């Protein structure tokens, strides 16, 4: 490379050509950043320079801290540019690379990773030889200064090539051992992992504040869904699992009443830094809010608790209001920081609040959300539900309904006031996988709580994906600034397929059904491990990396393999397509050893296992009142029941659905496994024979 091509201080670097907001945040760094690609990799090979790989995302607080301390500092940048080829990655655009190097970090350092992820790679094979996460600009937290570390790593690379080569081979061998063999054909898949997972979750459960384990506390929506389903599965037995219901609903209650939930605008933050769900890490991610929206709506109809209904309605409204693009796709994240300070957008001072509310409204609001308590966040007050409204109403000697009106009035006024502040940054990437999660959440909430506008929103998102991110029978992963980029990953196909199936239960569309089948075919053709079962994270024609991952555990999002198994099984039953059912069963066999060892880390896969062992009930309703029958059935929490209301005049149906013919009036067919009932001609008859 010509010396003039190097980026001098004060000019933009190569990241200025990217569309990722996270990469663009670093486009004016004095660091000579490259995006991941052949230009950077070839340069590292030719100059025999190790690669400094930095992975983060736009809403990451500690990514901003490291950027300010080190990447914006000319002296640090000079050391980086002298000794390394520097590559910056947005983990939301390249989850394949993030996944590989997070695993490598855990192998090398023997502890979990996170963001920012800082890895040092060999230029020859791109295998890491050292790594970490955040490094400070000065020695603190028991860590060296970043510039000192850079000098030591550069020296190690120069002087210890034999050691690096030996470690590289050991790392590659460890990667090869990550995929245990599938269960033998004669191994019976049983309910045992479900039983063990239920016991393990009970051991980790916080009986006072909900959630699992100690601080920091993450929502873990797959765990909550698993427990809610466990209760429902046992609800008609002699000993219903009320403890599972308690664990699920207490956790949701504490989250929805706590500071994890945005008490003014709706939506959930990433995680709580404390045991009490009081102070969150303030970033708000679409991938959390899609599954939590689903859960809140399901819990609302399962329990009738108005708190869950409010959380669902407000979260869906927040997604539409603040996170849906004019073109229809859902944006990715809201940053934790504004004006350089984490949480500044969300916190309050009692004096400011009192100035804008009536004394009566302030009396209710301050007691409810702790403004009459000590400050709980850096001298400010973050809203957290301290006292029940009934208790406050009794203390103030007013009816509870009046107290609710005062509280609603205060929340409305303060939201308008907050909207005038400097907003956190919003990452306006549209990610196919996260849109799939949000589509599912919107669809479930629309039919559970009778909100067709939420279904409208989900359809707009799906239509955007089909028009902008579906090319020649393949998905793309990311859309930003009019450009759709990056071959899609397993999660894109699996989450979107599941979202389409949820949307079909809310609003039938033959076009969407055909799209679901196309997604399923692409999954089988491009991602399936034909030898062992399950699905790789990348397609068979993806860029060759140091490892092609295939994992079954839930992470911040549900396991892509689990959602693929669940969705393929459901679509296979709906269409009578045994190839989909067989692929789902092979996935469960591939995951079986993982389910036996650590079942409570695979709760999404356990839901797929549950439906494999006891297939869901599928109701096909045809006729003029099909949607009304569906809406009545949707008022009951029945997670093992799928209802499709298909118009009488629907054409071009697959054979398995076409044979469920429309007749005079409205009729329904109840299918369990591959067996379907004779047509039922009344809603009462249908309700009488369904699992409920």
Blueprint of the fold:
Layout: H1 21-25, E1 33-35, H2 38-47, E2 51-56, H3 61-71, H4 74-83, E3 85-90, H5 95-109, E4 117-121, E5 128-132, H6 146-159, H7 161-176, H8 192-204, H9 221-234, H10 242-257, E6 271-272, E7 280-281, E8 284-285, H11 286-303, H12 306-323, E9 333-334, E10 337-338, E11 341-342, H13 350-356, H14 359-369, H15 389-396, H16 400-418, E12 426-427, E13 430-431, H17 432-448, H18 452-468, E14 470-471, E15 474-480, E16 483-487, H19 490-506, H20 510-526, H21 560-575, H22 578-597, H23 603-613, E17 617-622, H24 626-633, E18 641-646, H25 655-658, E19 667-672, E20 675-676, H26 683-689
Parallel strand pairs: 1-3, 2-3, 17-18
Antiparallel strand pairs: 2-4, 4-5, 6-7, 8-9, 9-12, 10-11, 13-15, 14-15, 15-16, 17-19, 19-20
Helix pairs in contact: 4-6, 9-10, 9-11, 9-23, 11-12, 11-17, 14-15, 14-16, 15-16, 17-18, 17-19, 19-20, 19-21, 21-22, 21-23, 22-23
Per CATH, what is the topology of the domain at 3-176?
A: Glutaredoxin
Counted by DSSP, the helix tally is: 26
What is the overall shape? globular
- Name of the top-level CATH class of the domain at 3-176: Alpha Beta
Commentary on this structure:
The chain has 692 residues and is of the alpha+beta class. Helices cover 49% and strands 11% of the residues. Among the domains are: 174 residues, Glutaredoxin (3-Layer(aba) Sandwich), CATH 3.40.30.10; 75 residues, Winged helix-like DNA-binding domain superfamily/Winged helix DNA-binding domain (Arc Repressor Mutant, subunit A, Orthogonal Bundle); 73 residues. The chain has a 5-stranded mixed sheet, sandwiched between helices. Strands 13, 14, 15 and 16 form a 4-stranded antiparallel sheet that branches. Strand 14 and strand 15 form a beta hairpin. Pfam families: Thioredox_DsbH. This is Spermatogenesis-associated protein 20-like TRX domain-containing protein. InterPro entries: 6-hairpin_glycosidase_sf, Ssp411, Ssp411-like_TRX, Thioredoxin-like_sf. One of its GO terms (biological process) is carbohydrate metabolic process.
